[in-house]
Design goal:
Residues 24-255 form the GSCFA domain. It holds the Pfam family GSCFA. The chain is 44% helix and 14% strand. The chain is built from 10 helices and 10 strands. It is α/β, with parallel strands linked by helices. It has 2 domains: 24-262, Rossmann fold (3-Layer(aba) Sandwich), CATH 3.40.50.1110; 264-328, no CATH class.
Length: 328
């Protein structure tokens, strides 16, 4: 008998520790971690999302976090200048400055931001993208981004599970004992080496996450990869590049996140905030009309009733839209 749902649903994991509005959260890794991080931001959770830009390989992800915790100095051999902009092979191309001095300052500020967030951190969400890495031949070090330098300057290789575990162990030793680490494998496929190699790469990441989940009681795995590739296997859930998930797919996975990581109390607050989000997206035809002015006042009252969320900036913005009656 065929499956009448025409899909193969993934069983939603249930985690003992839940995210709430008092939780400190940091997400880091591939662009999928940005997708989920942005949803958490939208609902005003205390989250720092991908502060170092998109990172794909586990070694660079772990290294950037360790560097932030130690406020380590930059590897000057990895700093490059391109079209009057300074970048580093250890960071995404979004992180750039017009001078080496400014670049150092920018990284220092990001490191301090991350270090402060990781102090008493509740949840660390790590999304690994690929176990293929590039070593810079000059330093024999794994880099996060090649910045379109000639391929002859790098050597590509595949990480072993043992390397990833060793790197993770070192990172974990510096994290607060209370921190829960949620590992995910990015569902975004990497075509550069071909689909066969992509599957090999993803399998190493998935196997390694299993090892770490068995090894540490505060490490869990979230099946974003399986939800996207098995449950949402239809190409209608992919953007035109046939690689990245559509907004609909991200929302579908987000529902899994909500059901797995939030309790009923937190979800109740989020439902109230949904009303606020729908309200602020509303574009009035006549902002000065009595109807819209009353709507703004109702929105302010609703915002003020949600005590769990920091929203002073939004309330101020709404109040600025209130038209003061003209005196006669």
């Amino acid at each position: 008998m065929y499956n009448e749902t025409f899909r193969t649903p993934i069983k939603a994991p249930i985690y003992e520790k839940k995210i709430n509005y008092k939780s400190k959260i940091l997400s880091i890794g591939s662009c999928f971690s940005s997708n989920i991080g942005e949803k958490l931001k939208e609902y005003r959770f205390n989250i720092l999302s991908n502060p170092f830009g998109t990172l794909f390989n586990p070694i660079s992800i772990h290294q950037n976090l360790r560097s932030a915790l130690h406020t380590s100095s930059l590897n000057n051999d990895h700093i490059i200048s391109e079209n009057n902009f300074v970048k580093s092979l250890d960071y995404h191309s979004d992180i750039t400055s017009e001078s080496t001095e400014n670049f150092h300052q920018s990284i220092l500020e990001k490191n301090l931001l991350v270090k402060n967030q990781m102090d008493d951190l509740d949840f660390l969400l790590i999304t690994w993208g690929s176990s293929f890495v590039f070593e810079y031949n000059k330093t024999k070090k794994i880099v996060a981004n090649c910045h379109k330098l000639p391929s002859k300057e790098f050597t590509q290789r595949l990480l072993s599970p043992e390397e990833i575990v060793l790197s993770f162990d070192e990172l974990l030793s510096f994290l607060p004992k209370k921190t829960t680490i949620l590992l995910t494998v990015s569902p975004i496929r990497h075509f550069r080496n071909g689909l066969t190699e992509n599957n090999l790469s993803k399998s190493i990441l998935r196997y390694t996450s299993h090892i770490l989940e068995q090894k540490y009681s505060n490490v869990s795995y979230f099946p974003s990869f399986e939800i996207m590739t098995d449950e949402l296997r239809d190409y209608r859930f992919y953007k035109e590049d046939m690689v990245h998930p559509t907004d609909q797919a991200i929302l579908y996975i987000w529902d899994y996140v909500k059901n797995s990581l939030f309790n009923d109390s937190t979800k109740s607050v989020m439902e109230k905030w949904d009303k606020v989000l729908r309200g602020v997206r509303h574009k009035p035809i006549n902002p000065d009309s009595e109807a819209h002015q009353n709507f703004l006042k109702k929105m302010i009252t609703l915002c003020e009733s949600i005590n769990e969320i920091e929203k002073d900036d939004l309330i101020l913005s709404l109040k600025e839209q209130i038209v003061t009656p003209k005196s006669h």
